[in-house]
Amino acid sequence: MKVILHDLDHSYDEMIGSKCDHVLAADGKYAPCQGCFGCWTRHPAACFMKDKLQKVCRLIGQADELVIITKNLYGEYSAAVKNVLDRSIGTSTPLSTYRGRQMHHTLRYGKHDLWKVIVYGDTSEAEQNTFRLLAERNALNDGFVRSEVVFLRDITELEGSL
User: In CATH, what is the architecture of 2-161?
Assistant: First the structure.
């Protein structure tokens, strides 16, 4: 299953929806993570907050391919995208294991294929390097076999990147 998480406006909905199985719009119409860890322990992979991100852990956890479309924010995801990713902590468990010769949380849904980040907006070379490292580390932590980062000079290049 291919899931696309994006912070674009609704004018891109049709094009993005035709390229994947499920779309997560980081539109800010949900609550931020409260840090209660309930999605880890009390009700695994489900948030206690009853909004559109209540089951985001399950959706991202079952994705073979996760594509994140984000505006560059100093070499980091946009705040709206980061908020969605924060709410997906339940894709793993509180237990630990070694993965990539490092300690990580045990995956609740097993391995996945691709963590892909498509970045739009001006990016410096340092920000591009930060994004590459961030995508690589996020992929490893969330059980994705590989990561990829694409930098768009102009958002009109988006369709060819999906």
Answer: 3-Layer(aba) Sandwich (3.40)
Dump pLDDT digits (tens) for 54-83.
999 999 999 999 999 999 999 999 999 999
The phi, psi pair for 16, rounded to 5°, reads -65, -45
Question: Percentage of the chain surpassing pLDDT 90?
Answer: 77
User: Which residues are within 8 A (CB) of 137 and not within 5 positions of it... i.e. 6 or more apart?
Assistant: none
What is the value of pTM for the model shown?
Answer: 0.94
